[in-house]
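Appendix C reproduces, verbatim, an entry submitted by the partner laboratory led by Prof. M.T., so that reviewers can inspect both the input and the predicted structure.
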Amino acid sequence: VPAPRNRSQPDVWRNVWQHTQLTEDGVRKTIRREQRTLRWQAIRGAVVDRFGTIRGLRTTELGAGTGDISLLLGLEGARPTLLDANAQALALARFKFSVAGLEPSCTVGDLLDLEATLRGVFHVGVSYGTVEHFAGADREQACRAHAEAIGPGGMVAISVPNAHCLPYRLNKWQREARGAWPWGFELPYTRAELDRIAGRIGLEHWSIHGSSFLRDWDQFLLNPITQRIERFTGFHFERRTPLDRWCGHALTLIGRSPG
């Protein structure tokens, strides 16, 4: 797949963040929703297993946007640094953090060319929905940046859309056909590609986790119906299924650097 003409798509993301409106109640709902996701549980469990605690860890989120994963880490006592190419996205992230009584460190910059002060200094490097917006050599380099940001024995967690998730692919196809897809170039990953990249960027003891496939139907195709079910019955769709590993929308690569 050829790389986009402008690899960072500044116009796309400028439009996304200009039309993003946040409220305190909405932020609190986002926190509660993310805290019960299988993705967060996998990341949290891996970090605690590696370091014994999240409190006091230096973490960085690359291509952070509004910093959802960093906010969850901050609520557990981490010291997050958010990196994004768009200053408005980081302003939105600061608002989210303020709702929780927190304040992140924010840096405007290019994850494909990390400045020296961001290299090798973090315990954990993460991203949600970032590296799928690159192609060609930039695709691997965007993943490599996570490994460059952490010190010896540090951890990375890279979450990407799964090319084999049917609800996501149908939703994306429908929105692109209507001209309503807002996120520009987005090329999902397969488990095999993530596995190859993990080895190339020098990770050790890595694993790839899937998100709730049941939740994907709620999120991408059946939301008006499932919202009513959740409202009237209390049932939520963030539940494990045998298909999560292969078909869940969010594939999350979790691994360690040597040392």
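Strands lie at 58-62, 79-84, 105-108, 122-128, 150-161, 204-210, 250-256. Additional entries are available on request from the coordinating office.
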